[in-house]
Write a structure and sequence with these properties.
Blueprint lengths: L15 H15 L5 E3 H17 L4 H15 L5 E3 H8 L29 H16 L9 H13 L3 H14 L6 H19 L24 E3 L5 E3 L1 H11 L12
Antiparallel strand pairs: 1-2, 3-4
Bound molecules: flavin-adenine dinucleotide.
Flavin-adenine dinucleotide (FAD) binds next to α5, α7 and α8.
C-alpha cells in the first residue's frame, strides 16, 4: 500500500522530520503556486529564506542548501524571479551531495488521525516557534526580524487565505509591541493560543488533538497559576523557560529522518 504508515511519537516533543517536511511543502508546493515571484511576494520570500538560513537548526546538508538558496536569492537584483529558476537552486543536490532539502513529507509529531487534519499547518506553527526561540541566541538582532519574516510569508504565500487574514489582523494589532527577543517568543505563543481558543471545537479540529491553551498543566504545571478568585493566570517566567527549552535545537528529535 502507498498509504503513509503511522509513526509512533512522543506528543510532548518536537521532531526534525516535521520541520523538514514543512520546508519541503512550503518551498516546493506553496511557493510553487506563484509561477513568477515579484513585488511584495519577492521581498517576503527573501526575508523568509534569510531567516531560515540564519536560524533554522537543521542538519548540515539542509543548512548548506538553505545558505546556497539564500545567497542566490539575495543576488537576484531584478524585480522578479520565476519559480522554475528558484526550484533549480532548490533541487541542486544532484550537483552537490552535501547540499539538499529532502523530497517529500514525513509527518511525525504533526500526524493527524485523518489525512485532512494537522500536517502542514501544524508544521508551520512548529517551525515558527522554533525560529523565534533560535533567534533568542543571537546577539544584537532585531527582535521583530523573525516575526516579520513569518508575517510576510503568511501574507504572500500561506495557502489558507482565511488563516493569513486572521494572522495579519493579529500582527497589525499587537506585533509592534514586541521589543525584545523573548517578547517575540511570547507574542507567537500567545497569538497561537488565541487561534487555539478560536478554533476549539471547530470542524478542523482533530478529535485526537484537541485545541487547548498550551502547554497543558500536565506538560508544565509551573506555567499555570490560580488566582485567589479562582481565575487562571499564566506564570510568564515559567512559560518562557518552558518555551525556550521545548523548542530549543537540542530538544528536537531526529527520528524518522531519511
Ligand atoms: P496546531 O495549532 O497546528 O499546533 C501545532 C503544535 O504546536 C501543537 O500540537 C502543540 O504541540 C504546539 N502548540 C499548540 N499551541 C501552542 C502555543 N500556543 N505555543 C506553542 N506551541 C503550541 N485554521 C483555521 O481553521 N482558521 C484559522 O484562522 C487559522 N489560522 C492559522 C494561522 C496560522 C499562521 C497557521 C500556521 C495556522 C492557522 N490555522 C488556522 C491552522 C490551525 O491553527 C492549526 O494549525 C490546524 O488546525 C492543526 O492543528 P493542530 O492540532 O495540529 O495544532
Amino acid at each position: 500500500s502507498t498509504e503513509d504508515p503511522w509513526r509512533p511519537f512522543n506528543r510532548s516533543r518536537v521532531y526534525m522530520a516535521d520541520l523538514e517536511s514543512t520546508l519541503h511543502y512550503s518551498l516546493r508546493m506553496e511557493v510553487a503556486a506563484h509561477t513568477v515571484i515579484k513585488g511584495e511576494a519577492l521581498i517576503a520570500l527573501k526575508k523568509y529564506i534569510a531567516v531560515l538560513a540564519e536560524y533554522f537548526p537543521g542538519r548540515p546538508v539542509v543548512m548548506n542548501l538553505l545558505k546556497s538558496v539564500n545567497s542566490w536569492l539575495q543576488n537576484q537584483i531584478g524585480g522578479e524571479i520565476s519559480y522554475d529558476a528558484f526550484k533549480e537552486i532548490l533541487d541542486n543536490s544532484a550537483q552537490s551531495p552535501d547540499t539538499a532539502l529532502p523530497e517529500g513529507v514525513r509527518w511525525v509529531g504533526c500526524q493527524g488521525s485523518q489525512p485532512h487534519f494537522r500536517r502542514y499547518p501544524c508544521g508551520v506553527w512548529t517551525l515558527f516557534h522554533v525560529l523565534t526561540v533560535q533567534a533568542t541566541n543571537a546577539e544584537e538582532s532585531d527582535p521583530q526580524e523573525v516575526l516579520y519574516a513569518m508575517r510576510k510569508y503568511v501574507h504572500s504565500f500561506f495557502g489558507c487565505r482565511l488563516c493569513a487574514e486572521h494572522f495579519e489582523n493579529m500582527a497589525r494589532e499587537s506585533m509592534m509591541d514586541v521589543d525584545t527577543l523573548s517578547s517575540a517568543v511570547f507574542w507567537l505563543w500567545s497569538s497561537h493560543n488565541r487561534v487555539n481558543n478560536r478554533l476549539a471545537g471547530a470542524l478542523s479540529e482533530d478529535p485526537n488533538f484537541p485545541k487547548i491553551q498550551w502547554p497543558s498543566p500536565e506538560m508544565c504545571p509551573a506555567c499555570h497559576m490560580v488566582k485567589a478568585n479562582g481565575d487562571h493566570q499564566w506564570n510568564k517566567d515559567q512559560a518562557l523557560s518552558f518555551l525556550l527549552s521545548y523548542f530549543s535545537s537540542s530538544s528536537i528529535l531526529k527520528d524518522y529522518l531519511e
